[in-house]
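Translate structure to sequence.
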């Protein structure tokens, strides 16, 4: 059997982490410590809302004057809304009648020089420069073709430019499976060897002119242990062991070009400053909550039960805790991963391998167009969980993908609640000195889509008509 390796993403751990965040707020724990941060307050009023139904909002770029570019990755289009958010123009979409095509893979929006914006089209390995009027003025190639998907953001976090004009993005240390001895020919025991995956990932910087690359720093990421076996009928089966409450770091590029590495172990920030120096700010207040052995067992049991119920009903969970049920057709087509990603599912999706035999198109899953007659069957990954003893002794302050930089020099960190809360998620707002200066709760059913200057925050919300974007004031 000839093995072809292709990376794909499934929502297993994305839904898992979002569900775990909800459960973390519900599970009692012993020894809660009192926090000393600012009191939680509600977000300011919503002042505008899109009337055009969107499939989702994967990213936005707030513009001067109240305009906003929106990346709708499911409908594969980029729209420019005016300040009222009721009128829009199409910047790029997937229809043949549009001069600027949105590729078959999700793209990403990045704030560029002045008021211009980059749209990363990973499929064509290009970056489109969009002016404030929504006109594409220039097309550039991505600086490194192998990093095109990382530049689109999504599961790998926000992408930005540092003070020296270098493009900053998160990559991965994923280790590819090793071919079995003999190159995967006939005989027994020819399964690929799954190496241990690292629990860190690099944040890289690249100069667009020289293509010179360097590493800005490293962050701790969720680790997935994977095993692959083969049944008597030749079907390849994969098992993933996940930690539903991982202790991780996160990162963001601030508006001054500095880079913040937010450490989950003790909730402080390591800074790569705009002038190239490094510094660290003190630990920030957090209601650290100890998990007893019984708490850990109860938490794992709760995650298993919720996951089983979701799987039975065909649900995916977004990063805002919203549950979306797939139709029978979507479940039959295996659309769970795409729908979870489109709905804003939290990052660090489970990475799996698709194995194909000779004659099949590389990376084509069994039973889908492009798969050859000799493609080996593969079951959906079976998810198991780490032993309760491997959960951290204290609830982490945040999950992966929880840190965002606003347009006014602050970090917004979506925290894991340490006690049951009513309403939406709570964000710690941290200034450039690493000081916790505000704690803001989102309205129920909302998640932050991005920011505008002058205390503007954009929210994503869903109703019967579809997904909508709202503009609100921070106060």
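Result:
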């Amino acid at each position: 059997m000839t093995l072809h390796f292709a990376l794909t993403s499934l929502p297993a751990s994305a839904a898992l982490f979002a569900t775990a965040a909800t459960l973390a707020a519900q599970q009692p724990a012993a020894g809660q410590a009192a926090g000393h941060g600012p009191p939680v307050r509600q977000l300011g009023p919503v002042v505008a809302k899109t009337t055009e139904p969107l499939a989702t909002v994967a990213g936005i770029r707030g513009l001067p004057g109240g305009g906003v570019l929106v990346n709708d990755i499911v409908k594969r289009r980029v729209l420019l809304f005016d300040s009222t958010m009721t009128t829009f123009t199409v910047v790029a979409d997937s229809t043949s009648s549009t001069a600027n095509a949105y590729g078959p893979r999700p793209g990403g929006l990045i704030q560029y020089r002045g008021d211009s914006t980059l749209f990363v089209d990973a499929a064509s390995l290009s970056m489109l420069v969009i002016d404030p009027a929504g006109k594409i003025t220039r097309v550039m190639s991505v600086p490194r073709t192998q990093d095109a998907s990382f530049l689109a953001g999504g599961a790998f976090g926000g992408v930005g430019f540092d003070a020296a004009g270098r493009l900053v993005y998160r990559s991965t240390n994923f280790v590819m499976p090793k071919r079995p001895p003999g190159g995967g020919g006939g005989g027994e025991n020819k399964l690929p060897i799954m190496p241990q995956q690292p629990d860190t990932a690099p944040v890289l910087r690249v100069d667009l002119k020289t293509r010179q690359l360097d590493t800005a720093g490293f962050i701790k990421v969720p680790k997935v242990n994977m095993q692959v076996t083969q049944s008597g009928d030749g079907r390849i089966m994969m098992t993933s062991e996940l930690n539903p409450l991982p202790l991780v770091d996160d990162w963001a590029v601030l508006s001054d070009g500095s880079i913040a590495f937010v450490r989950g172990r003790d909730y402080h920030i390591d800074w790569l400053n705009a002038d190239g120096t490094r510094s660290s700010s003190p630990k920030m207040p957090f209601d650290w909550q100890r998990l007893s052995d019984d708490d850990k067992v109860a938490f794992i049991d709760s995650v298993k039960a919720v996951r089983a119920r979701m799987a039975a009903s065909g649900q995916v969970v977004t990063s805002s805790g919203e549950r979306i049920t797939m139709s029978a057709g979507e479940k039959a087509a295996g659309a769970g991963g795409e729908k979870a990603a489109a709905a804003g599912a939290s990052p660090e999706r489970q990475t799996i391998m698709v194995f194909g035999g000779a004659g099949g198109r590389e990376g084509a899953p069994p039973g889908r167009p492009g798969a050859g007659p000799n493609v080996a069957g593969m079951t959906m990954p079976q998810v198991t969980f780490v032993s309760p003893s491997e959960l951290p002794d204290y609830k982490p302050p945040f999950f992966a993908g929880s840190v965002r930089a606003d347009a006014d020099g602050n970090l917004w960190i979506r925290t894991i609640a340490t006690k049951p809360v009513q309403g939406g998620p709570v964000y710690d707002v941290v200034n450039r000195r690493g000081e916790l200066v505000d704690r803001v709760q989102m309205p129920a059913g909302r998640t932050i889509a991005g920011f505008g200057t002058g205390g503007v925050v954009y929210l994503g919300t869903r109703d019967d008509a579809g997904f909508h974007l709202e503009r609100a004031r921070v106060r």
